[in-house]
Amino acid sequence: MLGSSERICALYKELSQFPSVSSAYIGPEVTAPNGSKFCNLYSEWWQRDLDRSQHLRFCRQYSVFHNGRAVESVAPAGACVEIQGELLSRESPSGALRAVLRSTMVQRKETEFLEIWHRSRKIKSLNLTALDKHGKIFSDDQFGCLEWSHLETHLLYVAEKKRPKTESFFHSKAPELSGSIAEKGDQFVLHEDWGEGLVNKSVPTLCVLDIEGCNIALLEGVPDYISPGQALWILDDSGIIFVGWWHEPFRLGLKFCSNRRSALFHLNFSSSSCALRNTCSFTSLNYLMAVITEMISLDNKAACSPRLSPDGRHIVYLEGDVFGPHHQCLKLCMYNWDLKASVTVLDIVRKPQTGFSGIYATALPLMCWSDDSRRVLLHTPQRSRKDILIVDIETGAVGPLTAGSEEGSWTLLTIQRDLIVVSCSAPNCPPSLKIGFLPSAGKEQEIVWVCLEKAEPLQNIRWKTLTFQSPDIQEDPKYNGLTCESLLLLPCHSLEGRLFPLIVSPHGGPHSSFDASWQLFAAVFCQLGFAVLMVNYRGSTGFGQNSIESLIGRVGEQDVQDVQYCVEQVLKTEPLDSTRLALFGGSHGGFLCCHLIGKFPGLYKVCAVRNPAVNYVSLIGSSDIPDWRYSAIGYDYTYGQIPLPDALTAMITHSPITSVGQVTAPVLMLLGGKR
Questions:
Q1: Which residue ranges make up each domain of the chain?
Q2: pLDDT value at position 301?
Q3: Quick one: pLDDT at residue 281?
Q4: Given this structure, which CATH class describes domain 461-614+655-670?
Q5: What are phi and psi of 172, to 5 degrees?
Q6: Integer Cα distance of 342 and 266 in angstroms
Q7: Would you state the pLDDT for residue 472?
Q8: Segment 78-102 mean pLDDT
């Protein structure tokens, strides 16, 4: 027996205490009387709090002493402090001010505030709920933003557009008693939202707070056929850049989908007349209205993550195709503000020929530019690890900053004044926090990392990356030579020399991937004595666009074959017990697990799946991403189409529900709306 329930719970609780860093910010540079320089580094972390059944957020600060090109020493500045109620926070460009969007309970009612902090005190607090200018704030990664104007006089954020009050035709309350005139008969009108993770988020609106006057303006000029988000000020505060997602003909789910039609827009302020609702003064910036909205990227693509260079001359962003695989290899594009034109800096990589296999990031870091405005840094999967890459925008040259390191995967948190803050981890090592100065161009590999928070590897876990090429009989001639990989975790010591039982875990998506980073469940399983095989089958991100497209039309076949082939190969070469195999996966990973227990009855002894897709047909009318059901089986998707018999037949054929009669293993199926 590998462990009693008490031991399992105790181990899970112990490993849950390792935190992960989510963001970082570097404060202003200070020169001491002796000539030495230092700055404060603010970091935010999260960890599971099992007693409170929530993710606990906390912050920690450090003092960083440096000479401008190298870190000399670091020291923690006080103890960790829990963060409560913060939706978003952002330091001003000078570092003197900090804006916080906060949600808290006031007289048993959820209330949102926008606060301005100056050093050691709060100097302003606006009750946004009481002002009633808009609906709830958007703090999600898709639309949300909180951006200071460069003069630090205004704040830009996104909120749900306020809807008129509604009531029944039979409501008899007089308007003077209700406080406003309500639209009768519309109380049951359905308002489309943007799907999973964005429920009740339907019509975002751009909001600007005039800090001095405490006035909020809802910016007009945004086309009513798009939802704006991810907004930022241009360098002279004379306009705003934002991403707009098309509504027409209806909203499709956005979470995990980088293939939704969207573009970059420039909202330009002019002084001819006033089109700002709710009267807001912009006299400090010498403009009065937002009248010109210009699309500055292609209107038939999917764009996101605009990031302005320090000199204000360029905006880099990610761009991909509309429809098809819901996540795929993306381009890195750049808009030249002087030339008013976009160019492709890094194109889609179809079949990697060098060390670079393409960009698969869902977003660029908020701060990603070098101080000279020539280089861009980003993190992205590169096969079965996540690395930080450096891109020269003038030459298009791309190179790794972290490839070949002992750490399995790296995440860029921020780069400011060429001081880089990163998080790194491995399957056997929780996340660590490191900093280092970016060397000059061409010498990036000489970077010296200094550790602020170091996590020690777990001594009882070893891991390796295994590469496989499926037999020729399973290859599509159009996409030949593709490989798949697996991350294998093994306990360092077996019990009395026995072989290890194996838990097989294919990832979800399907167009996502496992990278060689800290994975709580895998670490717990391994500490309990299990080996864990995390499979990146063909179709995973990080291996080139050809690999992604090879799965289209072959879902439920190629991915199942790849997982099974990887299992068969490791059973031949590793100290694993072929009579004790288990399956564990969620979403599309659960889809694959359900296929495997039906197609290989008796081989897998037990199966646990979370929100598995077991029947594609039933998802057509209930999923917020119906286009994927068509793409998965190799059919083109168009809005409004009615499923035809051949498409329905293909969907059911590709689904694991067809093998349910062959299942003999016990299955634990976890279904729910919350993760």
A1: 461-614+655-670
A2: 96
A3: 40
A4: alpha beta
A5: -115, 0
A6: 13
A7: 65
A8: 94
Is 380:361 a contact under the CB 8 Å cutoff?
A: yes
In angstroms, the Cα distances linking 275 to 217, 248, 270 are 10, 25, 10
> Average pLDDT of the chain?
90
Task: Give the per-residue pLDDT at 409.
Answer: 95
pTM: 0.93
Residue 493 contacts residue 524 (beta carbons within 8 Å): no
Answer for the pair 425, 455: CB distance below 8 angstroms, yes or no.
yes
What's the CA gap between 8 and 296, in Å, rounded?
Answer: 54
Mean local confidence (pLDDT), 467-490: 85
pLDDT in tens, 404-460: 788 889 999 999 999 999 999 999 999 999 999 999 988 988 999 999 999 999 999
Helix (H) or strand (E) run with residue 572 in it: helix 558-573
Residue 393 neighbours by CB under 8 Å, 6+ apart: 314, 316, 334, 345, 374, 375, 376
Judge whether 503 and 530 are in contact, CB under 8 Å.
yes
Token output for 616 = 């594609």
CA angle 642, 644, 647 (to 5 degrees): 115
The CA-atom distances, in angstroms, between 74 and each of 17, 21, 434 are 24, 17, 11
Beta bridge mates, 98? 91, 117
Nearest residue to 479 via CA among 418, 383, 550: 550
The region of weakest confidence among 280-284, 372-376, 595-599 is 280-284
The predicted model gives 169-175 an average pLDDT of 68
If 0-12 CB within 10 Å is exposed, 13-18 middle and 19+ buried, where does residue 657 land?
middle
Q: How far apart are CA 400 and CA 603, in angstroms?
A: 41
pLDDT tens-digit profile of 139-155?
999 999 999 999 999 99
pLDDT of residue 675: 56
d(CA 266, CA 423): 33
pLDDT in the model for residue 185:
79
CA dist 284 and 151 (Å) reads 9
Mean pLDDT across 458-473? 88
Give the residue among 41, 27, 146, 28 at the shortest CA–CA distance from 86: 146
Q: In what order do the strands lie in the sheet with 302-308?
A: 302-308, 314-320, 331-336, 341-346
d(CA 422, CA 402): 10
Task: For residue 44, give both structure tokens.
Answer: 């935010």
Instruction: Give the C-alpha separation, 350 to 237, whole Å.
Output: 39
Q: Please give the biggest Cα pair distance in the chain.
A: 83
Residue 280 pLDDT: 41
Ramachandran angles phi, psi of 122, nearest 5°? -90, 125
**Is residue 557 within 8 Å of 474, Cβ to Cβ?**
no
Please say if the pLDDT value at position 271 is more than 70.
no
In 3D space, the residue among 607, 493, 625, 513 whose CA is nearest the CA of residue 562 turns out to be 513
Sheet containing 154-160: which strands, arranged edge to edge?
146-148, 154-160, 204-210, 215-218
